[in-house]
Amino acid sequence: MPPNARLMTEHDKQELNSFCEGSPVLSEEVPARLPCGFLMTEYRVVCSGCRSDIPMANAWVRRARHEFAQHSIETWDVRGVCTSCRMATSTYVRFRSNGTFDTIVGHTWRRGRYDSGEQDDQGNPLYNEFTPGDPRAFQYEEACFVGFWKYQIGIFTEIELAAEFNDFDYTEIESGVDVEDEITRAQFDALIAKLSPKLLELAAQYPKTQFFIAHGDAVTYRGRVTLNAFTPLLNGRLPNGLYLAPQSLALMISPYFRKGPDAGEVNMTTCPALQGITDKLIALA
Ligand SMILES: [Zn+2]
Asked: What is the 96 CA–ligand 1 centroid distance (Å)?
């Protein structure tokens, strides 16, 4: 047995049994059409004990759909039992109608995107092998995406913490209501006091990037508290002022081109600094 694995207790078994009884087998639910229209033909559950693949016939799924405004989110709660080591593994994913999905890795939500072979009007693949200058090439891990903010195109990094803050009035919440990861204002203030100095340190290390904390129902899903970084990209212009291409040709490069605190290969499509920012935010969470 791997060092971090543990055998199922009686309670675990009961909980798993009641989950399986009320839920369809995963192989009966896949292929499934997701809210964004993508046809998911395979859902891979990897055993957290021995890392082998759990067959879809040995896993059960609970699906729920949430609709708000023009958006919808579908959640998949999947439990599988490993055929080799008999350990149970849970995964939880939410699929958004905008084509992104989140999955819990440890205590962090990670964002991903499907690659179903979409192409732009030039015939370039949309989600891999970007041509030089395509800002999507700078996306790193699943936490990064291309965004447009304050008239600039850049790379957003968003890391969700295991905390939600909507500033509820707790006297109005009925006892017994499950508020899950919701934290109180005092806990939120303490969290901000703990994180602020660390974000300020990062801001000093990465002067081209804006760091901020977001929360609240109108901003993040369920008011989840998130750590964010936005790095505006340069349009074809090196930090020394030299243009690599006419401005009419969008050719986005990192403002940390050949500088910045992270060592590693620097070229037109990879930037160790943008990766470093993401890694450091994940470490903070
Ligand atoms: Zn296993």
From this structure: 30
**Average pLDDT score over residue span 152-173:** 80
Confidence at residue 230, expressed as pLDDT on a 0 to 100 scale: 95
Q: Are residues 90 and 149 in the same domain?
A: no
| Domain co-membership, 147 together with 40 | no
- Calculate mean pLDDT across residues 59-63: 94
Q: Which residue has the higher pLDDT, 49 or 196?
A: 196
Q: What domain range includes position 91? A: 10-98
Distance 160 CA to ligand 1 centre (A): 29
Give 251 Cα–ligand 1 centroid separation in angstroms: 46
CA 3 to ligand 1 centroid distance, Å: 13
Among residues 215, 220, 222, which one has the least CA distance to residue 191? Answer: 215
Residue 137, classified by CB atoms within 10 Å of its CB into exposed (0-12), middle (13-18) or buried (19+), is buried
Give me ligand 1 centre to Cα 80, in Å.
Answer: 10
On whether residue 172 sits in a domain, the answer given is yes
**Å from CA of 113 to ligand 1 middle:** 27
pLDDT digit string (tens) for 94-125?
888 877 777 765 455 555 555 556 666 666 65
The verdict on residue 140 lying in a domain is yes
Does the residue 1 lie in any domain?
Answer: no
Report the predicted TM-score, pTM, of the whole model to 2 decimal places.
Answer: 0.54
Do 153 and 60 sit in the same domain of this protein?
no
List CB contacts of 178: < 8 A, sequence separation 6 or more.
Answer: none
Query: Is residue 2 in a domain?
Result: no
